[in-house]
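Protocol step 4 of 6: structure prediction from sequence.
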Amino acid sequence: MKQFSFTLFPKLTTDRLILRQLREEDVAAIYRLRSNEKINRLITRNIPKNNDEVSDFIAVCHQEFTNKNRVFWAMELKETKQVIGTIVYHKISLEDSYAEIGYELDPAFHKNGFMSEAMQVTLDFGMERMKLKVIEAFTHQNNLTSIALLEKHQFVLQTKRRCQHVENNRIFRRENK
């Protein structure tokens, strides 16, 4: 399989999901996700105030892809085309075979296996096409659902490391030999 080169945005599919590039038509869905109180309870980030800020965020995601720093997927239900979440590789270094992974899911779709499904196809893509050797995730120490997801996908808590930017975040790491 040919190594990923950032020339064409990768579309990934699972039994129930399509992971695709963000589009301008996604502004309302992304606004709902990024401003959702339940999602943001354990995440430290700038919350968008309006659709213009989300539109700017989408433009940044496209530019970061062009700059080979980020692959930000919208998670769309195959059946209805509804955007229910996102998953991202960021801080990518193909030279160092490294990326960080992040994700969010509309709480109405929790506990249905959607994020695990998206995580698996994204990890497979990262290992097989991007040739990543190390993938890290930063999650709040009280986000037990996120921790369980990471552990299910063979991420290991880095007990001797702490996130420099968010005191309550913990670092999980998956190494691919």
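Step 5 (inspection) to follow. The CA atoms of residues 60 and 70 lie 10 Å apart.
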